[in-house]
Amino acid sequence: NTDMARLDVMETFHNISFPGHLHTQDSLNYAIHFPFQDTDTVIATYPKSGTTWMQEIVTFVKNGGDPHLSKTVPNWTRAPWLEQYYSPEVLGASQGHRVITTHLPYHLLANALQDSKAKVIYVTRNPKDVAVSYYYFHKMANFLPEPNSFDEFLDQFLEGKVNYGSWFDHVKGWTSQARVNFFYISYEEIWLDLQGCMERISSFLECPLVEKDLTRSVRHCSFSSMRDNTMVNYTLIPNEIMDHSKGHFMRKGKIGDWRNTFTEEQIGRFDNVYNSLMQNCPLTFLYEC
Ligand code: A3P
C-alpha cells in the first residue's frame, strides 16, 4: 500500500541514499569495483532514455508477466542504481537474480564487467528528445540545478556539462562493445513495437513468456498504465526532491516532442555538434514518427 511504500522511501532516504541524490565518491568507487555476478541483469542508459520503462519491462519479463512486484515495490528497489545505492546490503539483498541499473559511462565499468557474463541491456533514445526530457526533468528535480532557459541547457547538454556527462561519449562508449551478453535497443523501437521488443528481451534474458502473460505485460508497461502506477511514476518521492507541481516524471512519453521546443537555430547548433562527434558511429536514430 502507498503509505507503507512512502515509509520505505523515507527510511531509505535517511539511511542510505535514494534516486535523486547524486552519487558520492564512495558510491562511485563501490560501483567501479562492483563484483558483478553472471546471473545479474544490468540496465544501462544515459538519463531520460527510457530507464524506468526498461526497469518495468524487465520486471515483467523476469516475473512471468506477474504484476505483483510492479504494484508493490518501487522501481528503484527492484532495480537499484549501482552508483547511488552503494551499500552492499542493498544490492546483495536480491542475491541470485539481481537487476541493477546504471547511468555510468562504459569506461568506468569496463573492468568490473570484463570477465562477467552478466546480461547488459543498453537503451538509447534520439538525443533531441533526451535533451528536452532532461531539461524538463531539471525543472522538477530539486537536486539538479534549475535551468535558466532551454537554450542555455542545450549548450550544457552539447558540451557534456550535465549530470552523467556527454550523451555522445556515453552512447559511443557503450555501443562500441560487441559482446554476446550485451543487448542494444532504442526507446523508439520499444515505442513502435512494445510487444515485439518484450519478446526479444524475454529471449535475451532466457525468460520465456506465454502469450497471455505477454499481453498482460504489454498492457502494464504502456505509458498510461505506468503514469498511474505510484511504484514507477516517482510520486512517492517527497516534493522537496522531485516537485510534481513543476512537472511530471512521466511527462509525455512520445517520439519527436523535441519539435515543440527546438528553434531552427537550435536544430542547426545541435546538428553541427552531432555531425562532428558522431561521424564514425554507425547508429541511426528515429527523430519523429
Ligand atoms: P519524456 O520526458 O519525453 O516524457 P528515464 O526513465 O530514463 O528517466 O526516461 C524518462 C522518459 O521516459 C520520459 O520521457 C518518460 O515519459 C518516458 N517513459 C517512461 N515510461 C514510458 C512508457 N511506458 N512509454 C513511453 N515513454 C515512457
TrEMBL record:
Is Cytoplasm among the key words of this record?
yes
Give the top-level enzyme category.
Answer: transferase
Q: What is its main location?
A: cytoplasm
The residues covered by the Sulfotransferase domain are 38-281
**This protein is called what?**
Sulfotransferase
Transferase in keyword set: yes
At the highest ranks, the source species' classification is: Eukaryota, Metazoa, Chordata, Craniata, Vertebrata
* Molecular-function GO term, any one: sulfotransferase activity
- Alphabetically list the UniProt keywords: Catecholamine metabolism, Cytoplasm, Transferase
Q: Which residues lie in coiled coils?
A: none
Identify the InterPro entries for this entry: P-loop_NTPase (IPR027417), Sulfotransferase_dom (IPR000863)
Per the record, the similarity remark reads: Belongs to the sulfotransferase 1 family.
Gene Ontology terms, cellular component aspect?
Answer: cytoplasm
Where is it localised?
Answer: Cytoplasm
Entries under Gene3D superfamilies matching the protein: P-loop containing nucleotide triphosphate hydrolases
Q: Its GO biological process terms?
A: catecholamine metabolic process; xenobiotic metabolic process
Q: Which EC numbers does the record give?
A: 2.8.2.-
Protein's organism: Esox lucius (Northern pike)
